[in-house]
Every structure is written in C-alpha cells, then in structure tokens.
Amino acid sequence: MNIKLERPLAFFDLETTGLDISSDRIIEISILKLFPNGNKISKNWLINPEITIPKESTLIHGITNEQVKNSPKFKDISIEVKNMLVDADLAGYNSNKFDIPLLMEEFIRCKVDFNLKEKKKIDIQNIFHKMEKRDLTTAYNFYCSKKLTNAHSAESDTKATYEILISQIDKYKNLENNVNFLDNFSNIGEKFIDAAGFVRMNDNNEEIFSFGKYKNKSLKEVFNKNPGYFSWIKNANFPIYTKNIVNDIINKIKLEKKFKSER
To answer: Which residues pair with 40 in a beta bridge?
Structure first.
C-alpha cells in the first residue's frame, strides 16, 4: 500500500546526547523522504554535537564520542537538512514531543529559518498508543511481524517507523489514508503553539500557558498582571523556539494595546 500524499512526507529520527530539549544535541539524524509518486530518498548523518556524549546515552544508541569527533557539526549540514525537509510534512516516533522540538532548537542555534506552521506532523507513537497502548520495537513486531534489529540506530528506527505507518493504515479501517487526517489523529489532546508544548491555544483561540503557576491562564492576562514573569521565561532554561513564540505573542499584545490607546 502507498500512503496518499499531496506533497512529500519526511520520516525522521534523531539520536541525541540526552533528553533535554533545551541543552542536549543531535548526534545522528536520519531522513526517509516519501514523494506522492511513491519514490523515496534517504539520507543519514553522524554529527559532532560539540558537547560530550554521556556514557548513559552511548549505552542506548551505541554512538561514542570517538565515532563523532571528526563528523560535521550540525551547522555544517543544517542547510542540507532544511532543504530535504522544507517542502515536506513530518512523521516520526514520539516526534511531536521530542524530535521536532529538538530539531527546531538546532536550527535556531544556527540561525536557520525553518517554518513549522504550515507542516502536518504525524506522530506514529500517538497512533500506536491510541490503538494499542505500547515502544518502537514492540510496535514493529506487532504491526510488521518483524524483529527490530539495531534498535536505537536512527536509520533503522526511521525505516521501521515508515513501515509501521504503512501497516497501521492497512490494519485500521478508521484511519484515513491522507496526511491531514493522520496529522489530526496522531496529535493527542492539546493544540500546542510552540514545538515543546509550553504554550497552547484554548477553545476561545487564546494563547495560554500549559505549565506552572499560570497554567491555563492567557498570556495576555498574565502580561497585564505580572509582566516580570516573561523576563523570567526569557532567562530560564526554556527552549529557544518557545522563547521566540512567547516573545512574538507579547509583541502582538503590546501592539494591540498601543493601537487601542491611540484610538
């Protein structure tokens, strides 16, 4: 079965120095790009993260500091990665919560403009959890009747993720074979504005916080009551992408207030 596409769909997976979106770095990225005509291209990069890979992380993915010391830095391949993804929607395993936010942080550090707003984002893990409730190795065995060898290799995980989505579409008749449906179905719950999920949209189309003492409060309300809170966000350990989104919203609020005062 082929996935019905109106534009390319890029499956991708990251191996990283750790799980902190704000401070950890990519050490391997693999992309499998599927085109509407069924053609595929793939690319895999080992990356020098410019920080030490902890032993705990190496035990998971098997990539050592020695292996990546002569590899390109992310800034060296950032344009190539962007060009491979720029015209495509995105798909991955736990990608909405981890891979996409971390990738955005890397682009921002390199000052590479990569627009997420118009992209559909299919998270295969969310589909799996909605349908069966369980990890990638188990999902691969369940849907594809295959054993995932070399798990936690970005290339192997990316190919397995692609095969799982094909099997999911084939298995579940209520899964429509189009990217719009899969994007909506694989996004569980909240409508997040920033990639990491700190800011979301409520039912009244207001930007609200999804964390902390102002959880479920609108950014406009918080700004009017406690503008210093945003200085704390600016200096705290939040993802750069989140800080940029919050700053854009605050600038919009300021313009609205200025416009009202001049009327």
So the answer is: 34
Please report, as a single letter, which amino acid is at residue 233.
I
Domain regions of the chain by residue span: 9-189, 199-262
Token pair for residue 85?
A: 């993804």
Q: Among positive and negative, which fits the CA dihedral 98, 136, 134, 128?
A: positive
Which DSSP string do the residues of 114-149 spell out, in sequence order? ---TT--EEEHHHHHHHHT---HHHHHHHHH----T
CA distances from 128 to 11, 34, 174 (A): 16, 21, 14
Q: Which residue(s) pair with 43 in the sheet? A: 31
Q: What is the pTM of this model?
A: 0.72
Least confident range from 65-69, 155-159, 190-194, 212-216: namely 190-194
CB of 247 within 8 A of CB of 112? no
End-to-end CA distance of the chain: give it in Å, rounded.
59
Contact between 209 and 254 (Cβ < 8 Å)? no
Among candidate residues 155, 9, 160, 14, the one with its CA nearest the CA of residue 84:
9
pLDDT at 129 over 90: no
Fold for the domain defined by 9-189: Nucleotidyltransferase; domain 5 (3.30.420)
Q: What is the pLDDT of residue 190?
A: 62
Close Cβ partners of 50 (under 8 Å, ≥ 6 residues apart): 25, 73
Q: How far is the C-alpha of 204 from the C-alpha of 223, rounded, in Å?
A: 18
Measured between alpha carbons, how far is 162 from 170 in angstroms, rounded to an integer?
Answer: 13
Answer yes or no: is pLDDT of 14 > 80.
Answer: yes
